[in-house]
Amino acid sequence: MIFEEKLNEYIMRINAEIEANFTDEDCLQRVVYDAMRYSITAGGKRLRPVLSFAVCDMLGGSLPDALRFGVAIECIHTYSLIHDDLPCMDNDDLRRGMPTCHKKFGEANALLAGDGLLTRAFEYLADFGAYKDVTPQTVLKVVFEIAKSAGCAGMIGGQIVDLECEGKENVDEKTLNYLHNRKTGELIRVSALVGALAADAGENEIKAVTEFAKKLGLAFQIQDDILDCIGDEKALGKPIGSDAENKKTTYVTLLGIDAAREKASALTSDAIRALEIFGDRAKFLKELALNLMGRQN
Amino acid sequence: MIFEEKLNEYIMRINAEIEANFTDEDCLQRVVYDAMRYSITAGGKRLRPVLSFAVCDMLGGSLPDALRFGVAIECIHTYSLIHDDLPCMDNDDLRRGMPTCHKKFGEANALLAGDGLLTRAFEYLADFGAYKDVTPQTVLKVVFEIAKSAGCAGMIGGQIVDLECEGKENVDEKTLNYLHNRKTGELIRVSALVGALAADAGENEIKAVTEFAKKLGLAFQIQDDILDCIGDEKALGKPIGSDAENKKTTYVTLLGIDAAREKASALTSDAIRALEIFGDRAKFLKELALNLMGRQN
What is the pTM of this model? Predict the structure, then answer.
């Protein structure tokens, strides 16, 4: 199957699982279900669940279980975007070409919808009757690993460092790496990890796919910085130049656009090299990495 | 052992576990650890972990495991207070006699400290190596039950209905019950449930302790409404009359103070009656229910 077909098939399965789990609820607190559904069905690349699914597929594991792990991570990713967009954080009005959650539902409802998505991720993860092949031990390990990567040593830690860097003039590359390896990198790394756990992978395989995901995550962020600078607003679904406007240090402001491109490209090569042990089985993941380099949004 | 001694012993064990798990962290995102620690060590009655611990103790179960379950619930309770106090929610300056988390650390850090506590609760819960006697199946069930009770069908749902009721003149008792059975009731119910699960309790025992906790939770809320009306500000650590000022419908505004007291007292009797099957073993829990009725904060 060619790459695009396979990617679309993965995304269709992910979106179907999300649709089935975020339905309208006729109750007094209906608005919070509406707000969660609004944000999680707003599209997006589904990179994290695609990674879980593709890694598990490569390793011949249980796909419905990897799908579940990946969709839980997508819930956490979506909650983090809702909270990041709030007025006390980035104060953004648009996300993927649509009003942000708080613009549509108000601040309090958006705050609670974010909390709701984070909580739902763990309820959904721990629903053992819904799995096909994995053991309770594996599911518990997945809960632990996802929570750790989403927490203060991981994603939230990166968000905090991002806030601390705001308005600072001399943020260095080491700090920028520290920030992004956590803020976006950790969830991307754990997405690959849980795909491997759904396949009961060995240590070497786990090491290889997480190394791949770490390099991919940083390349992805650098590409984001480049697109914020020279991207197409329509394709991005948000105004460009917001980093410059907020006087944010990015890989582009720090290295210049050419060196930033080179760094992203080198990281992509490193990511692909990490998959060598899998030979031809890694074809999809390698193409995914190359594809993310060429993306417009 | 007399009631107060036993209660203090429980609370000391709970606080020691919290202190050991919320230490200073010397890293770039240090402020989020400081903010979490500030809020979770600010005292409070520790009602939820006390319930988990006491139920497990009554049933002869594994106390270190019940402690772990209960402390995770306390993390979730604390995150909900931090988010509830935020300007877009209740906009409160004081909590337990101290500045609220956002007054001390700023809004963005408080938002993320709340997110961090919620995420940490699940990381801590899923850390299977830290348990003594429970199976992975039991831990997964506990993760599931806690997430469900903290989510949109539970605590968050109650917070949403609370927001929806704000400023409305004709909130009826049915809606008020719906709200509080979720906003405060669900976490109190699940605290008792997980204490029973740590003791591998049977169906009848689980039914009895959760019935107890449900009645106790609603009595607790009514007592809160009464204290907000006639309590002592110093003992409460916050100004009284805030409900009236915010034009909130409470059990006191709805029923009057005497009928509210009667309702709380009747619910406490119901709670105690639910424990009959345990005979003398339920002495502590019964005294706890009576004690909560007489509290000043």
Answer: 0.96
